[in-house]
Structures are given as structure tokens and as C-alpha cells.
UniProtKB/TrEMBL annotation:
Thioredoxin domain residues: 7-166
Transmembrane segments: none
Key words, A-Z: Oxidoreductase, Peroxidase
Protein name per Swiss-Prot or TrEMBL: Thioredoxin peroxidase
InterPro entries linked: AhpC/TSA, Thioredoxin-like_sf, Thioredoxin_domain
Keyword Repeat: no
Molecular function per GO: peroxidase activity
Amino acid sequence: MAHSVKLKAGDTFPKIEATLLDGSVVTLGKPQEQGVWQAVFVYRGKHCPLCTKYLNEIESYKQAFLDAGVEVLAVSADSKQQLQEHVTQLDVSFPIAYGLSEQQMKELGVYISVPRSEQETDHNFSEPGLFVVNENGELHVVDLSNNPFIRPELGALTRGLAWIRDPNNHYPIRGTLDY
């Protein structure tokens, strides 16, 4: 069985682009403001009610992320039409991109699932992943799940990121020892 490659803490985040509904292209992990970090939330897609709930919950923590100097971006393998339909169920002000290819999902090292039926969705999709990329383009925090039920608790995440980003704490990237 072939093994997927998982990004490791401290790795340079790969250059992966996706598209916003307005047609503009975003580079994952590359914040719009200099010196700011970016939290890239990879989600399953429109078909997942837990994703809808989590994306709306991220919105309620958006200010806490910004206070910690971390921009938020979400992305899935959905099509433009699927995202257009999904945003009607979302109340978010952060950018959401679509069109993540299977090759890009493999580059990110996320778990990939096959739809159970055509009713679920019409393409293979990513399970949840979070990549927090620092100002040097390095992966500072990574969290991968193989199912929709396990995702970072956003209160703990935003408090932790604020602590990591506090220059008085000198907190390094953790988990970098190769074995």
C-alpha cells in the first residue's frame, strides 16, 4: 500500500493555489498582510453539515484569530457551483476558496475520502486539516483528521496561537525531531 506524504512541523508550506468565488486566485498559507500568519482550514465540502457548523463557528472566533495576528482562509475540493450553494448556509466574512485538486490534497498530506454515493458529492474530498503558516512560510501548527468529528477546539486554538505569537514567549515550532 502506498503511503501518503504528511507535511511536518517546520516544513516549508507548499505553493498551492485555489480560487475564490469572485474569480481571484489565492495562495494557501500566504497572508494578505505582511508579518501576519495564516490559518488554512481544509474542509470536506458542502455535503458535510459538520463543516458548515465549523466554518460558521470559525467566524465567531475570527476576531480572536486576528488579535493573535493570524488570518483565516478555508478551502475545499468543491466546485464553484457547490461553493456558491454552500455560502447560502454560511455566515462568514473570511475568504473561502474552492477547487482543491486531488494532487494538491496529496501535497498537503490530508486524508482523502471517496464519496459513499453520488448523493453525497461527485468527487473525492479532503477530510479536515488545519495548517498554520508563519511569516517565514513554515508550517508552525498542523492538525489532520481522517473523519469529520475531530477538529481543533477554536477557543483553545486561538488562545494557543496568541501565546505562541507573543514575542516574550519565544515559543519555537514544536514536534520537529525526526525519527
